[in-house]
Backbone:
């Protein structure tokens, strides 16, 4: 999953939360993301493009504070 934007991502199926860790180190949780959307994301070659086209602006989010 090489990406110039996303360092890592994780999906919590029980809570429908997509967690994105950006290469900058910032971490955001995108809320109420359906499992089908996450499944589609896994298929895309460019995770950053998917994020911009399908996630941002379509789902509420919150920044995860650093510990």
Residues:
């Amino acid at each position: 999953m090489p990406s110039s934007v996303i360092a890592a991502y994780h999906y919590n199926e029980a809570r429908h939360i997509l967690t994105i860790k950006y290469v900058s180190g910032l971490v955001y949780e995108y809320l109420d993301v359906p499992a089908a959307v996450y499944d589609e994301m896994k298929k895309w070659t460019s995770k950053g493009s998917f994020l911009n086209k399908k996630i941002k602006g379509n789902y509420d989010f919150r920044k995860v504070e650093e510990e």
User: Anything to note?
Assistant: The chain has one domain: 6-64. Residues 35-43 form the longest helix (9 residues). Residues 44 and 58 are 18 Å apart (CA to CA).
